[in-house]
From TrEMBL:
Subcellular location: Cytoplasm
First-tier enzyme category under EC: lyase
Catalytic activity, reaction form: L-histidine = trans-urocanate + NH4(+)
Description of post-translational modifications: Contains an active site 4-methylidene-imidazol-5-one (MIO), which is formed autocatalytically by cyclization and dehydration of residues Ala-Ser-Gly.
Primary residence: cytoplasm
Keyword Lyase annotated: yes
E.C. number(s) listed in UniProt: 4.3.1.3
Lineage: superkingdom: Bacteria
Name of this protein: Histidine ammonia-lyase
Native source species: Sphingomonas floccifaciens
Family: Belongs to the PAL/histidase family.
Length: 508
């Protein structure tokens, strides 16, 4: 069970939630939630116009709403804003989004009642998740459409996914022992305003990017072994002189992965090559830069996940409702763009190593890594597949944050596009995972040609992990299952876990 203490949750906490750990709020935040709700009641009693409580929304903020219509106002905003389209968001994303909303409410600045928070916890505990269309948010004024679909389900409208079975919301709530929520003042707006959809997508991609990054360190070292490349470019002294933390850590990791290799020792003295291609030699510089960027994105997302991003915000000590712009997801948009660039480069340099290995002029190995080239095509087309995936990621890596578009009759005249920027990332990560899976196959095949020489203990464990599922390619065979198996080892983290070595990462 992950118990969230708002303001202090770590990336590791959010990663555990994304991967299915039960989640709840820490009891210590209940008083702040109750105080915030009581403050809203006092504000309503005063009768003065306060945005989101007794006024219209967006361009209609100047329209005053009478006390008898306040409940209808909140229900209307939820139903009208539940205008998303596209495929349902993945269940893991929805769980993470709801947990992020819980943490935000737990700060006691949103004015929602304790019962509303308890209902989100109950839905998560029952694995009863709102069906959230994945398209329709521009990342300001918050992720309105996706979060409205969540709020609508809590009100008994829409569809709910109970352990994989989609049913009408009212039926689903009844099935798990819940009754539809009648929203109080401010609650509809609090539920649908915020950056939790964008942040959930960006965090999920960050976790997948970390997994493929670490796997690519292993396959990069294995490719260096297969090509009988040098480990001299990974010397700590080189990277210490430049000073980038990620570069230094990657260099140390690669050198450590190759330590004790008989393959490396076999050509240390008599190799006529002075320098290796950049795809081998510059791994610390490229992968280290990717690590630094991912860590910066991770820091931004950790701060965002621990903050409050709805509007207006309630300050219970003074009974003030202050309107601002915390719903603007520009920090998340920038983080998403950074993750996209890192994923793109991880896959790009991996594909270049595959291309190097299949080219006998560069690798010194048989053409296309097959013992009988000509009769067999070997790794010819897997390299083409990797190139196709890398090209797709290049096209997707265009920054989303620079593409603002005015909405709401120009009241919301600059938006972040964070939702789009974050939502594309899981597909990019999947592409990179497949590229690294193909490299795993190619690098292991290359090392097979050096038998009986062995690589280091860590890299031999990586090869054994693969060879437990995919045999050496002696003759052409149906290649797709091999790629699927290797990619699964990358995506699941089994390859990284299997080597028994700690590698640099993003989440502490």
């Amino acid at each position: 069970m992950i118990v969230l203490t708002p303001g202090t949750a770590t990336l590791s906490d959010w990663r555990a939630v994304y991967r299915g750990e039960p989640v709840a709020l820490h009891e210590s935040c209940r008083d702040a939630i109750a105080a915030s709700a009581a403050s809203v009641e006092r504000i309503v009693a005063l009768g003065r116009p306060v945005y989101g409580i007794n006024t219209g929304f967006g361009k209609l903020a100047s329209v005053r709403i009478e006390a008898d219509d306040l409940a209808t106002l909140q229900r209307n905003i939820v139903l009208s804003h539940a205008a998303g389209v596209g495929a349902p968001s993945p269940r893991a994303i929805v769980r993470l989004m709801m947990a992020l909303k819980l943490a935000s409410f737990g700060m006691g600045a949103s004015g929602v009642r304790p019962a509303t928070v308890v209902m989100i916890e109950a839905l998560l505990a029952a694995d009863a998740l709102p069906v959230i269309p994945c398209q329709g948010s521009v990342g300001a004024s918050g992720d309105l459409a996706p979060l409205s679909h969540m709020a609508a389900v809590m009100s008994g409208v829409g569809e709910i996914d109970i352990a994989g079975r989609i049913v009408p919301a009212a039926d689903g709530l009844a099935k798990v022992g819940l009754t539809p929520l009648e929203l109080g003042p401010k609650e509809g707006l609090a539920l649908l305003n915020g950056t939790q959809f964008s942040t959930a997508n960006a965090l999920a991609a960050l976790f997948e990017a970390e997994t493929v990054f670490q796997a690519a360190l292993i396959t990069g070292a294995l490719s260096t072994e297969a090509a009988k490349g040098s480990d001299a470019p990974f010397d700590h002294r080189i990277h210490r002189l430049r000073g980038h933390a990620g570069q230094t850590e990657v260099g140390d990791a690669l050198r450590g992965l190759m330590a004790g290799s008989a393959i490396r020792a076999s050509h240390r003295e008599d190799d006529p090559r002075v320098q290796d291609p950049y795809c081998l030699r510059c791994q610390p510089q490229v992968m280290g830069a990717a690590l630094d960027v991912l860590r910066q994105a991770g820091h931004t997302l950790e701060v965002e996940a621990n903050g409050v991003s709805d509007n207006p915000l309630i300050f219970a000590d003074t009974d003030e409702a202050l309107s601002g712009g915390n719903f603007h997801a520009e920090p998340v948009a920038f983080a998403a763009d950074m993750i996209a660039l890192a994923i793109c480069e991880i896959g790009s340099i991996s594909e270049r190593r595959i291309a190097m290995l299949v080219d006998p002029a560069l690798s010194g190995l048989p053409a296309f890594l097959t013992p009988r080239p000509g009769l067999n095509s070997g790794f010819m087309i897997p390299q083409v597949t990797a190139a196709a995936l890398v090209s797709e990621n290049k096209q997707r890596a265009y920054p989303a944050s620079v593409d603002s578009i005015p909405t709401s009759a120009n009241q919301e005249d600059h938006v972040s596009m964070a939702a789009h920027g974050a939502r594309r990332l899981l597909e990019m990560a999947a592409n990179a995972q497949a590229v690294v899976g193909i490299e795993l196959l190619a690098a292991a095949q290359g090392c097979d040609f050096h038998a009986p020489l062995r690589s280091s203990d860590a890299l031999e464990r990586a090869r054994a992990c693969l060879r437990g599922q995919v045999s050496t390619l002696d003759e052409d065979r149906h290649f797709h299952p091999d790629i699927a198996s290797a990619t699964a080892l990358v995506r699941s983290g089994a390859l990284v876990e299997g080597i028994g070595v700690n590698l640099p990462g993003v989440c502490a």
